[in-house]
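>> received
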Amino acid sequence: MVDWRKNPKVGVILVVVIGIFLVFTYQRMKPKKYYYTTDFKCEQCDNVFNTKIYGGQKLPLKCPKCGKAAAYRAIKCTDCGFVFTMKPQTPPKGPGGGPLMMDMPKCPKCGSIKLGPVTPREPLPEPR
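>> returned
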């Protein structure tokens, strides 16, 4: 057994090793941030951009062009080509407020339900 009073280097090395172990353990225990990329449209300046959005992130997002928090998810009608935003629906308040039923999104210009992304997506790789 090593006497720490005679050789303090051993104590310092032990503290460093324990510190490194604790840092790695903490990093592994942190919740992972999951994200996806999607199109957004600013309702102030009509800028359309593609960005990452993380789970639980609050909307509206800040527009990179005008700097205002007015960007919502953008959808494109595949029939008429109109690009519009979809705002998240909030549940009804009060004693009768139950689970929120979402309506099928429709194009506000032509009423079509054929909707898709604004920017083209890369095709998925073919299965082998």
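>> The radius of gyration is 26 Å.
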